[in-house]
Structure formats: C-alpha cells, structure tokens
Amino acid sequence: MKSVSFLIFIVTLLIPATAMAKNQKQGQYFINFGAASNYYNYNSKDARDELDQNLQDLLDDYDLNGDDSDIVNASVGLGYYVTNDLAVRANYTYGIELDWLDLCFFDCKNNVYHDSDASILTLDGIYHFYHINDKLSFYGIAGLAVTRVSTKLTYHRSQQREPIARENSTNLGANLGLGLQYDFARNWGLKAGYSHHTFLSMDKYYLNLEWRF
Fold it and tell me: Radius of gyration of the chain from Cα atoms?
C-alpha cells in the first residue's frame, strides 16, 4: 500500500513537470544550425538570368532550362519563441554553389573559368499549428528572403587564377514552407522540412538542429 501511495505521489509530481515541458519554449531564444544537411534545388535559367548581360551572351549556346542542386553549404539562425507555438527567426545560409557554371564551363580553350554562388538571409515567422504530442509538432513558415548572387570570371595561367570580372546582385523574395519538429530533449530539437524561395525558384529540403537557451 505504501508503494502504491509513493507511486501516486511521484505521478502527481510528474504531471505539472510535463505541463511545464510543453510550455517551456515561450520566452526562450534558440539557435538553428546545419552543415551539409540543406539540399537546394533551383532553376538554372533563373540563376543564369541574374548574371551580367555579357556573361549571359556567352552562355546563349548552352541549354540551361533544367534544374540543378547543391548540398555542400552551411546555415545558422537565431530566433525567439514569442509563445510556445509562435517564433520569429533570422536564418543565414552561405556557400550555395551554382554548379552549372563551376570550373571550366565555357571558353575553356582560352583558360577562362567562371564561378558563381549564392547566400540567403531569411526573416521568418514560424507557427506550430498542430501538436502530435508534447515532443512532436508540425509547423509552417512565412517570411522574406534576401538572396545575394556572387559571380567571378578568372583567367588561368601557370596554375594561378587572375580575376577578370566580378559581379554581385541582391534580390528580395518570399520564403514559404512546412516542417516537422521533434524535441528530443529539454533544450534540443530536430527540424525537418521543406521551404520555397520565390527568387531563383529555389526549393530547400533540410534537417537542422535547434538549441534553446
């Protein structure tokens, strides 16, 4: 009988703790991060259209109407839980290689090389609209995406690269997505999801960690 009473006492103590765990995110800051876990798929023609007109003219003979992708990049984000279900976040991803123009894509006989990459800063609202249980929930994302495309032409001579031309362009678009979050510890979570950047028609599939503090 004493053992049963003791168990009831323990359960009574655990119930409030469970409720606290469910609502502990409100008022907390968090960091999202991932490396080689963000898969980007984009439209090659949209990316080419961001180049200088002179560079576009050089590419007119190539068919760039399909899609390409990149996974070798890294991202980090800082956010804040306004409520247990609503958060705001700034997230930065860098090192997105536009591989269709990498290395000696054109004018190889003259040793002219081209390299192009992109970085994205998003300002998002994240809302957890459905909870499967205290640890697992679905969320939606809506916000703005600032994309910077950097391009560079170089001439190769004696195993050295000499810069010929550089160009940077910055563009504003929207960011929309859906995801699933699993909180496997009090201050740790795992986010898996999909988002779409209207600029470059870029789709993102990701698996990132979240640390709350």
Answer: 23
Task: Give pTM, 2 decimals.
Answer: 0.76
CA 190 to chain centre: 14
Mapped onto helix, strand or coil, the DSSP state of residue 137 is: strand
| Largest CA-CA distance found in the chain, in angstroms, rounded | 90
- Tell me how far apart the alpha carbons of residues 192 and 170 are, in angstroms, rounded to a whole number: 28
CB atoms within 10 A of CB 26: 13
pLDDT in tens, the chain (213 residues): 444 444 444 444 444 444 334 558 999 999 999 998 999 998 777 766 766 676 666 555 555 566 778 888 999 999 999 999 999 999 999 988 875 555 455 555 566 676 778 899 999 999 999 999 999 999 999 999 999 988 777 777 776 777 777 778 888 999 999 999 999 999 999 999 999 999 888 899 999 999 999
Q: For residues 174 and 119, what is the distance between their CA atoms, to the nearest angstrom?
A: 15
Helix ranges (H only) for 38-115 are: 44-48, 53-58
> Is residue 144 within 8 Å of 172, Cβ to Cβ?
yes
Helices then strands, each counted (H, E), the chain: 3, 10
Q: Rounded to whole angstroms, how far apart are CA atoms 175 and 198?
A: 7
